[in-house]
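Report of the visiting student (M.T.), summer placement. My assignment was to run the structure pipeline on a short list of targets and document each run. The first record concerns Sulfurtransferase TusA family protein.
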Amino acid sequence: MSQPSWDDVVEMPDELDDETAQALLEDATEVQDMTGEVCPYPQVEAKKSITGLSDGDVLVQKTDHVPSTENVPKAVGDDATAKVWKSGDGRYRIFLRKE
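After the run finished, the structure tokens were exported:
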């Protein structure tokens, strides 16, 4: 019997490459620095911000809290499309495009 992989138990959004992530960050409508913050605070802030954005706007959350990469996209639900960028040193950016 094989052990489940990380991908079997975590519903991470699609990952972005470094170049695409930097371009999206530069064009973001809003950037939230959630470094050091834990759930549920990032989800609450993302949900509040997404409701105030126009369709096509991008909200970026910077975080070092791995569960946020899964929980924030779930919190905004169908209101936004999510993608994640990983730095390789424990930093993440969650990109949320308002639908």
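The CA atoms of residues 12 and 70 lie 5 Å apart. Strands lie at 14-15, 30-33, 58-63, 80-86, 92-98. I thank the supervising group for their guidance throughout the placement.
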